[in-house]
Amino acid sequence: MANENKWGSNIAFVLAMIGSAVGLGNIWRYPYVLYSNGGGAFYIPYLLAIISLAIPFLILEYGVGYNYQSSFTKAIVKLKPKFEFYGWILPVVVFIMTVYYSTIIGWDGIYLFLSFFKGWGADPNTYLNVNLLQATDSLSGAFNFIPFIAVFMLVGWFIVWLISHKNLDEGLGRVCEIFVPLLFVVMLFIVIFSLTLPGASIGLSELFNPDWSLLWHFDIWMAAFGQIFFSLSLGMGAGFTYASYTNDDIDLISSGLKVIFANCAFENFAALGVFSILGYMSLQSGTPVSEIVSQGTTLIFVAYPQVFNILGTIGLVLGPLFFFTVYIAGITSMLSSFEVLSISIQNKFALSRRKATLILCIIGGLASMVYATSAGGYILGIADIFVNNIVVILSVFVECILFAWIFKAERLIDFMNGRSKHFKLGKWWLAHVKYIIPILLLVIWFGGLYELIALKTTDAVIVLIVLALILIISSLIFTLLPAKTKEWFKTEERIK
Ligand code: PHE
Predict the structure, then answer these.
(1) 333 CB less than 6 Å from ligand 1?
(2) How confident is the model over 331-357, as pLDDT tens digits?
(3) Closest residue (by CA) to atom 6 of ligand 1?
(4) What is 10-489's CATH number?
(5) Can you tell me whether residue 210 is helix, strand or coil?
(6) What is the distance in A from the centroid of ligand 1 to the CA of 227?
């Protein structure tokens, strides 16, 4: 069992964590979030979210994961056996996220394929919404199954199985060691090229032009904290799980800082590329950048193909490179979110990595078929709000209380500081994890409920209820099924 779930080196851990963090959230979501929340002014809440939430919380998550060297659920059982049900809620909700995440990876796979011959035609907008997604904005399209999308989604699940069924270091570790650096190199190339396009500066000044008045709006603070959460895979068990596979000599503080730095550098870099290209497009088509961006999150599947069309032959190189980058970023993130439930069921039901990953990939692949319908995009939007606004924030609040108060965060200080040359934890860190972060989480949670109230259509309520039932019933089943191993109640702690 030992080498099945251990990193071969500390670098593999850091690269896998960067692979987890850098994902669709960085390329597809961040540029749009930055632009629509005050541009340059967004950096104030963004930096505060990094300092007050991301750095202290990531270190806490790593520390507790390292200590228990087991799944999130098993650690919760060790910490408070009565909380086992909660210990399943987080892995299951992260699995629900993995399922809809696989949809966007599937869409990206389609665009990667199309990019070799610009198969989206002269009007990418109509292609996406009418020809490809055949999108409806209610549940009415739920029975219109679209096999073309399904195939590409299943390819994603197959790749995840192919990598994650192997021993950790031979599968996940190796893949991240190769593909995460590649991701940065290809992105660098794309961004440098984009910056040289005529009109790039139009896009950039539009992006960074600060709207300071927005700082007084609660929304941009919510957006910044939400982005940091999603983008850094914070509190979702990914960091916990990856840290549990580390070797004894790991310096968790500097590893965490490296991950945060790499992730935030990557997303800001990606934003430079995205907006340079939009500036170029604005110059060519005479459409203001703001109008192009109003497509929101479908930006990469509409505006990008339009740009690749204008770019002629260069578009045939840049297009595949771009969609390939998004694909790798997506898969390395999906691997980490998939791992959270996978290791929990391996631990409780004494399943081998091979068996657990096969079962979960089949379940995930089948469940994801809901999104391969005309109502897929609609359900995805609601599932995203359900996961990110409601369940995750609340569950991270519980996690923070359990780790900081019941586990006692002070136990980590000497151990962490002993391994860290440059950065030491002290009172400020304890104050954050014990008081500041729980309070911040509650504020964000109530803010997120607002968005939910806005969704009061019957169809949205149906989707929310179904998701809540899936979450509660499956967590209950996992809790009630008897453990297949006596080890379930025995967890060695590494920090004495
Ligand atoms: N961080 C990933 C992204 O930016 C998403 C993710 C969240 C992955 C949680 C794993 C766990 O796209």
Answers:
(1) yes
(2) 999 999 999 999 999 999 999 999 999
(3) 233
(4) 1.20.1740.10
(5) coil
(6) 10
Q: Is 26 in the pocket of ligand 1 (CB under 6 A)?
A: yes
Asked whether the predicted pLDDT for residue 222 surpasses 90, the reply is no
Query: How far apart are the CA of 388 and the centre of ligand 1, in A?
Result: 11
Instruction: Give the start-to-end residue ranges of the domains of the chain.
Output: 10-489
Between CA 364 and CA 360 the distance in angstroms is: 6
CA separation for the pair 487, 473 (Å, rounded): 25
Q: Which of 20, 27, 183 to probe ligand 1 with, by most ligand atoms within 8 A of CB? A: 20
Q: How many angstroms is it from 21 CA to the middle of ligand 1? A: 5
Contacts with 291 (C-beta within 8 Å, 6 or more apart), sequence order:
none
Q: Does ligand 1 have an atom closer than 6 angstroms to the CB of 20?
A: yes
Q: What are phi and psi of 123, to 5 degrees?
A: -125, 80
Query: Ligand 1: does its nearest atom lie under 6 Å from the Cβ of 230?
Result: yes
Nearest to 201 by CA among 275, 269, 268: 275
Sign of the torsion formed by the C-alpha atoms of 177, 178, 182 and 183: negative
DSSP 362-429: HHHHHHGGGGGBTTHHHHHHHHHHIIIIIIIHHHHHHHHHIIIIITTTHHHHHHHHHH-SS----HHH
Token code pair at residue 355 = 């068996």
Residue 296: per-residue pLDDT: 61
pLDDT in tens, 258-302: 999 999 999 999 999 989 998 998 998 888 888 887 666 678 898
Round to whole Å and give the CA distance between 96 and 383: 8
Nearest-CA residue for atom 7 of ligand 1: 233
Helix (H, G, I), strand (E, B) or coil at 145: strand
- Nearest-atom number in ligand 1 for the CA of 333 is 8
**Which sign does the torsion angle of CA 397, 399, 400, 406 carry?**
positive
- CA angle at 476 for the pair 478 and 378, rounded to the nearest 5°: 100
Kindly report the protein residue whose alpha carbon is nearest to atom 10 of ligand 1. Answer: 337
Nearest to 455 by CA among 138, 230, 223: 138
